[in-house]
C-alpha cells in the first residue's frame, strides 16, 4: 500500500515537461520516462548532449582528415557511454561530463534509449551500425555492467583469442568491421570496434538522365578535378546560418521521411574551416528551427559519391584529454576481471550519395517572375555543391547526428 502511494506520488509530481512532438517520441519508448524524476525538457537535454559531444569530435576528426571524411558521432557517444558506465568513479565523472550525461542513472537510461533507437534498416533505407567490445577469451565480465549495456543495447561483447592467436583475432576483427585493420594496436585486453554504413533512397529521386561529369573547385575557385553531379529541381527546405555565412539544404530520405540529409556550403566561398571551428550547439538548434520550405523549386546539384573513412577514435579522444582508458588498466577493473583495458577504438563509416529515390518531383510550369521563395534572399534558388561541402544525416524525430561528413576531394582529380 505504501509503495503504491509512493509510486503515485512520484508519477503525479514529476511529469516531464514535454511538447506534443516529444510526447510522441516518448510514447514509442519501451522504458517509461515517468518512472524517472524528469523536471526539465528531456528531448532538448538529450539533443543538447549529443550536439555538444558531436561538435567536440567534429573538429579533430575534420582537421585530421583534411576535411574529407565521414563518421558517426552518435555511435561513438553510445560506445563511450557504455565504457563510462563501468569506469572507476573519477574517470566515470570525467566521461559523463565529456558525454554530457546526467548523474541520474534513470535519465541516462532514457538518453540511451533515445540514442540506440535511431538507426535501424528498412526496405528503403539501409543503415547498419555495429558496436562491439572485442575482449580477450577467458576474461570474466562484471555481470551488473554487462547486464546494463545489454539491456540498453549500448554494445555487444564478443570474445577472441587476443593473447594467443593473432590470426584468429585479426579474422574476427575483419568480420566485425568488414575491413582489414593491419595496424590496429592489440596490446591491451580488448578493442572497441564500431561501424555505421548508410545507403538510403531519397524521398524524391534525382533525375537519372542528368548525372554528368562536372568540374569541382577548390578554395580559390580553381578547378581541381571533376565529379559526377546529380541534379534535381524540387521544392526543399533551406536555411541560412548567418554567423557562419553558410547555406543549408535539407533533403528527406525514405518513404516516411524518417531521416534527413543536410548539406552545407559557404556562401560565396569554399573554405569550410570557419564552419568547423565556428559551429556551436546553439547554432545547430537555430539551424533546425530556421529551416523553411521554398515556395519555388530549387536547383539542386550534388556529387554522386561513396565516402568511407576509418577514424582512430582513441587518438581523437586523446585530443579531448581521455588518456587513462588506454594507459591505466585499473580504470576498467569494474568492467571485467582482468580489466577490459582497451588499446584501440576505431570506427569505420560509409555514406553513399546516389541518385535513386522513391518518388519524382512533379514538373512545374515556370513561376510567374517575382514569385518569392519565402526564404532569405541571400539563399537564392539553387544549391550547387561544386566545391567543398559538409553533409550529415539526422533522424527526423530527435535530430540526433547519425553521420557527419565533408567532401572536398573530387572523384576525378586533375
Ligand atoms: C559542451 O558543454 C560544455 C559545458 O557543459 C562547454 O564548456 C563546452 O564548450 C561545450 N562544447 C561545445 C563544443 O559546445
Ligand atoms: C546507385 O544507383 C544505381 C542505380 O541508379 C545502382 O546501379 C548502383 O549500384 C548504386 N550505387 C551504390 C553505391 O549503391
TrEMBL record:
<dbReference type="InterPro" id="IPR036186">
    <property type="entry name" value="Serpin_sf"/>
</dbReference>
<feature type="signal peptide">
    <location>
        <begin position="1"/>
        <end position="19"/>
    </location>
</feature>
<dbReference type="InterPro" id="IPR042178">
    <property type="entry name" value="Serpin_sf_1"/>
</dbReference>
<dbReference type="InterPro" id="IPR042185">
    <property type="entry name" value="Serpin_sf_2"/>
</dbReference>
<feature type="domain" description="Serpin">
    <location>
        <begin position="55"/>
        <end position="410"/>
    </location>
</feature>
<dbReference type="InterPro" id="IPR023795">
    <property type="entry name" value="Serpin_CS"/>
</dbReference>
<keyword id="KW-0722">Serine protease inhibitor</keyword>
<dbReference type="InterPro" id="IPR023796">
    <property type="entry name" value="Serpin_dom"/>
</dbReference>
<dbReference type="GO" id="GO:0005615">
    <property type="term" value="C:extracellular space"/>
</dbReference>
<keyword id="KW-0732">Signal</keyword>
<dbReference type="GO" id="GO:0004867">
    <property type="term" value="F:serine-type endopeptidase inhibitor activity"/>
</dbReference>
<keyword id="KW-0646">Protease inhibitor</keyword>
<protein>
    <recommendedName>
        <fullName>Serpin domain-containing protein</fullName>
    </recommendedName>
</protein>
<comment type="similarity">
    <text>Belongs to the serpin family.</text>
</comment>
<dbReference type="Pfam" id="PF00079">
    <property type="entry name" value="Serpin"/>
</dbReference>
<dbReference type="InterPro" id="IPR000215">
    <property type="entry name" value="Serpin_fam"/>
</dbReference>
Amino acid at each position: 500500500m505504501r509503495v503504491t502511494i509512493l509510486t503515485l506520488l512520484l508519477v503525479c509530481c514529476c511529469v516531464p515537461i514535454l511538447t506534443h512532438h516529444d510526447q510522441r517520441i516518448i510514447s514509442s519508448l519501451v522504458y517509461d520516462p515517468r518512472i524517472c524524476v524528469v523536471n526539465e525538457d528531456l528531448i532538448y537535454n538529450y539533443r543538447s548532449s549529443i550536439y555538444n559531444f558531436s561538435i567536440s569530435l567534429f573538429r579533430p576528426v575534420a582537421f585530421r582528415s583534411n576535411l574529407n571524411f565521414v563518421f558517426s558521432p552518435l555511435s561513438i557517444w553510445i560506445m563511450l557511454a557504455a565504457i563510462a558506465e563501468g569506469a572507476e568513479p573519477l574517470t566515470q565523472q570525467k566521461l559523463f561530463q565529456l558525454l554530457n550525461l546526467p548523474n541520474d542513472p534513470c535519465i541516462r537510461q532514457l538518453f540511451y534509449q533515445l540514442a540506440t533507437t535511431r538507426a535501424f534498416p528498412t526496405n528503403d533505407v539501409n543503415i547498419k551500425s555495429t558496436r562491439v567490445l572485442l575482449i580477450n577469451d577467458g576474461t570474466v565480465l562484471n555481470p551488473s555492467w554487462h547486464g546494463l549495456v545489454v539491456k540498453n543495447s549500448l554494445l555487444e561483447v564478443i570474445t577472441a583469442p587476443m593473447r594467443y592467436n593473432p590470426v584468429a583475432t585479426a579474422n574476427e576483427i575483419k568480420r566485425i568491421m568488414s575491413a582489414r585493420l593491419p595496424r590496429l594496436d592489440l596490446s591491451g585486453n580488448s578493442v572497441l570496434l564500431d561501424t555505421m554504413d548508410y545507403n538510403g533512397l531519397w524521398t524524391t529521386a534525382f533525375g537519372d538522365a542528368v548525372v554528368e561529369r562536372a568540374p569541382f573547385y577548390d578554395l580559390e575557385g580553381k578547378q581541381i578535378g571533376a565529379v559526377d553531379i546529380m541534379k534535381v529541381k524540387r521544392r526543399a527546405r533551406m536555411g541560412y546560418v548567418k554567423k557562419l555565412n553558410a547555406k543549408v539544404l535539407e533533403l528527406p530520405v525514405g518513404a516516411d521521411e524518417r531521416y534527413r540529409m543536410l548539406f552545407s556550403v559557404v556562401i560565396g566561398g569554399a573554405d569550410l574551416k570557419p564552419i568547423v571551428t565556428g559551429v556551436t550547439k546553439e547554432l545547430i538548434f537555430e539551424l533546425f528551427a530556421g529551416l523553411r520550405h521554398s515556395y519555388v523549386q530549387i536547383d539542386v546539384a550534388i556529387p554522386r559519391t561513396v565516402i568511407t573513412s576509418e577514424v582512430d577514435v582513441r587518438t581523437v579522444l586523446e585530443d579531448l584529454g581521455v588518456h587513462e582508458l588506454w594507459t591505466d588498466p585499473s580504470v576498467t577493473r569494474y568492467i571485467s576481471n582482468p580489466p577490459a583495458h582497451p588499446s584501440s577504438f576505431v570506427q569505420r563509416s560509409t555514406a553513399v550519395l546516389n541518385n535513386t529515390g522513391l518518388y519524382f518531383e512533379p514538373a512545374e510550369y515556370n513561376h510567374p517572375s517575382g514569385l518569392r521563395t519565402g526564404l532569405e534572399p541571400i539563399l537564392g534558388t539553387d544549391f550547387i555543391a561544386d566545391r567543398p561541402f559538409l553533409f550529415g544525416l539526422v533522424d527526423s524525430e530527435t535530430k540526433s547526428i547519425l553521420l557527419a561528413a565533408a567532401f572536398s576531394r573530387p572523384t576525378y582529380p586533375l
